[in-house]
Amino acid sequence: MSELHKFLFEGLPVRGLLVRLTGDWREVLQRRKTVQDEFPKPVRALMGEMAAAGVLMQSNIKFNGSLIIQIFGDGPVKLAVAEVQPDLAFRVTAKVVGEMPERAQLDTLLNVHGKGRCAITLDPKDRFPGQQPYQGVVALHGDQREPLHHLSEVLEHYMLQSEQLDTKLILAANDDIAAGLLIQRLPVEGAGNLGRKNEDEIGINEAYNRIAHLTATLTSEELLTLDADTVLRRLYWEEKVIRYEPVAPHFACTCSRERVGNMLKGLGREEIDGIVVEQGRVEIACDFCGVKYHFDPVDVGELFTPNERQAPGSATLN
Ligand SMILES: [Zn+2]
Fold first, then answer.
1. Does residue 160 sit in the same domain as residue 289?
2. How many structural domains compose the chain?
3. Average per-residue pLDDT for the chain
4. 104 and 179: one domain?
5. Does residue 152 lie in a domain region?
6. What is the whole-number distance in angstroms between the Cα of residue 123 and the centre of ligand 1?
7. How far, in Å, CA of 109 to CA of 98, rounded?
8. Interval 27-80: pLDDT, tens
9. What is the whole-number distance in angstroms between the Cα of residue 52 and the centre of ligand 1?
10. 288: buried, middle or exposed (CB in 10 Å: 19+, 13-18, 0-12)?
11. What is the per-residue pLDDT across 107-149, written as a single tens digit (0 to 9) for each?
12. 244 and 270 within one domain
């Protein structure tokens, strides 16, 4: 079962999260394989890292709405999306448009011409009409325009920029598991606004730096193969770690026939009728879960005829 572990360092303003997506992650890949060609290996790894990162970030901010990580690429991957709900239900997909080397990394997948972007969107659950979701965008290169090879570096940059919080993030994924470890410095009340560095603050920085340094020694291989207890013990055996009861992230898709219908309506009657004439019906497979939605000519007629079952003018009766 997939697991998310939360922990704190006793007496230190540092918190941590460790995620391991296992059966749920394999289900994502399996579903894809049953409807379409599977994603190339580097894209599967990227999607796994995005799913793990999304779960870590959603759990870290406890946001009542969807957290969406979108990477818009200018290379063989045009788009990669991971979406995580407050109950840690996640889904992830990508749009691949070209060939890529077997060992492609973030920059060779998505930032070939330096135009790749990563957008983090927080879409509140009870958004009132007209309210925009919050969105932060970061480039896929560093401050000196140096190429970033890993998603973790892009997201660390985003968190520093948007929350002003130092974050250390380790991500890794293969076809069996998608995993991540996040360590974040907690904001300290009063500190930072005093205009001077007192000894406490220096001590706090040292504590965070020490833990971030320990965290950085974790290899992808270790993150993918060791269970959560072993990872935390190995890295932080000299620290006092307070653990919380793990929770279970899971795969779930929010697609529905109604949403697909609305999307078809958005394309317009002419376009849809064209498809019906050509193929007899419209078939749409959800990019996230692979579920297929069929609309035959009668369904299409209903789509474009509002309140079809009501006689004309009946809405004004009573
Ligand atoms: Zn779906």
1. no
2. 2
3. 90
4. yes
5. yes
6. 18
7. 9
8. 999 999 888 889 999 999 999 999 999 999 999 988 899 999 999 999 999 999
9. 19
10. buried
11. 999 999 999 999 999 999 888 888 889 999 999 998 888 889 9
12. no
